[in-house]
Specification:
0% strand; globular; 62% helix; mainly alpha; 362 residues
Length: 362
């Protein structure tokens, strides 16, 4: 693992009032079996398995810290309510870490700890349908999808009733919202995982159609996006694409077609990913937020939050999460992943590239 990459991740996670949750992908049992096989066979994969194992150890047997209401969306980073919410939401980073470890190891201690976190949060947090806030809970949903068979039947009823309510709230936004920015992609992500858990194919289909709706209305032929033009930043451009590419990732053959699908206006996921590549490679530079039309961005800058400083240069390393996911569809992007991580491992330069490979099974 490249030292620069580790330092960058720690720097991002240490920002006051900010929460970056590692991406976790729902895997089927056959894919988890393949992950364990690959992790025990290939040295590149074993390195990540060892790292995940090391990171998870402090969280085994820990107690959850749920909260009734999340105050995150719409609050500047320095707001005490947002800072308090972030303290509680650190649980999601722990869930992500424990789930990755369980997928590698099958350790029953991790499984039991995950169950306690899932039950505590769904029994405490009161759903609102807010996309930004509830997207932070996504690791709980992926964890439940993955280890559901280990829950008691009565606990499954409680959890799935909560997921039914969550899905219903976000279904309405997916069908009716005209605010087709990065926030819409979060609604899609939540509806899709709820549909996968509950076996509601109509929710999965609605998410698929929502992706096409987003592409048609918010991605442009030159690769830019509504988020990019409205907020003058690649940060939100990328964050709007990640949930969409993740959903395409989960759709199998349909997802492969969706990645390159072009709207009548000429926009596509592929073009919008490619739009970021020269900035990720350092071939182009740009100053962020200068012409943002969103008042909250300016309030954040006025509060002295470095990530939102007007004129701040885009950091190429910020593109890694997008690139390592998109490489599933476009192997040529591996050169970007290698460049950003300074890791020339041919097969698995990052954890996500390892997940990409096992996800091809079945």
């Amino acid at each position: 693992m490249n030292l620069f990459f580790i330092v960058f991740v720690i720097h991002v996670q240490a920002q006051i009032g900010e929460l970056e949750i590692p991406l976790v992908i729902p895997l089927k049992p056959v894919q988890i079996e393949k992950l364990r096989e690959v992790a025990s066979t290939y040295s590149e994969a074993k390195m990540f398995a060892d790292l995940v194992t090391q990171e998870a150890q402090p969280f085994l047997g820990t107690k959850p810290n749920p909260i009734k209401a999340i105050h995150y969306e719409g609050f500047v980073h320095t707001d005490p309510q947002r800072i308090e919410s972030v303290t509680h939401l650190q649980d999601m980073a722990r869930v992500s870490c424990l789930l990755k470890y369980w997928m590698i190891s099958g350790d029953l201690r991790a499984e039991e700890t995950l169950k306690q976190y899932i039950l505590a949060w769904i029994q405490t947090y009161q759903l609102t349908g807010n996309d930004v806030n509830e997207n932070k809970l996504y690791p709980l949903l992926v964890a439940y999808y993955t280890i559901r068979d280990s829950f008691l039947a009565e606990d499954c009823l409680v959890v799935e009733r909560w997921i039914q309510n969550l899905g219903a709230l976000h279904e309405d936004s997916v069908k009716n919202s005209n605010h087709l920015t990065n926030r819409y992609s979060k609604h899609l992500r939540l509806l899709a995982i709820a549909g996968m858990i509950l076996g509601k194919q109509d929710w999965v289909v609605a998410s698929y159609e929502g992706i096409k709706r987003f592409i048609s209305n918010s991605l442009y032929e030159d690769g830019s996006s509504l988020d990019f033009r409205r907020r003058d930043t690649l940060t939100y451009h990328a964050s709007s694409l990640i949930p969409l590419i993740e959903l395409a990732f989960l759709l199998g053959k349909q997802g492969n077609a969706l990645y390159t699908w072009s709207s009548i206006k000429g926009g596509s996921l592929k073009k919008s990913v490619d739009f970021v590549v020269p900035y990720a490679m350092g071939e182009k530079t740009r100053q962020e937020w200068v012409h943002s039309e969103v008042a909250l961005d300016h309030r954040r800058a006025e509060e002295g939050i470095e990530e939102y400083r007007i004129g701040r240069y885009y950091e190429p390393a910020s593109a890694l999460a997008l690139m390592e996911l998109a490489v599933f569809f476009d192997p040529s992007l591996m050169r970007v992943v290698h460049h950003l991580t300074h890791n020339k491992a041919e097969l698995y330069p990052t954890w996500q590239t390892l997940i990409n490979e096992v996800a091809r099974v079945n």
